[in-house]
Amino acid sequence: MGRLRIPSILIVEDDLLASELLSCILSSLAETVYVANDGEQGLAVFQMHRPSLIITDLHMPVMTGKEMIQKIRQYDSEVPIVVISAYADTSNVVEQASATMTKPVRKEAIQEVVRQLFPCPSYKA
Predict the structure, then answer these.
(1) E strand or H helix at 9, and its extent?
(2) Which of 7, 11, 19, 91 is spaced 20 to 30 Å from 65 by Cα?
(3) What does each C-alpha distance from 17 to 3, 22, 28, 50 come to in angstroms?
(4) pTM of the full predicted structure?
(5) Which domains are assigned to the chain?
(6) What number is the average pLDDT over the span 82-99?
(7) 106: Cβ–Cβ under 8 A, 6 or more apart, which residues?
(8) From edge to edge, which strands make up the β-sheet containing 53-56?
């Protein structure tokens, strides 16, 4: 039985520890994991690589996650975007996000969200 392998995931997170943790968790689910430190870098990586999934924080310097999502949606209305925030209220981006999660993120929780966005009957976390 095969494991779920997404072609690529983009993580946009200004907290270095959080981005490293997410990268470690998600590297088992994707062929390639890209990491950006703010929304501006995230938008540039998105435009260059067109990842299969985007996971982003909301509150970042230079360009916020919300601003980045709005710009990405101008190019691609279908790429799944998961918003991860330390703030429980993500209602201002819910309509543009595929899923939202509150920090701290548990490994099982992020894997479950990915499973829901990319269903695969033989997937085992």
Answers:
(1) strand 6-12
(2) 7
(3) 27, 9, 18, 24
(4) 0.87
(5) 6-113 (3.40.50.2300)
(6) 73
(7) none
(8) 30-36, 6-12, 53-56, 81-85, 99-102
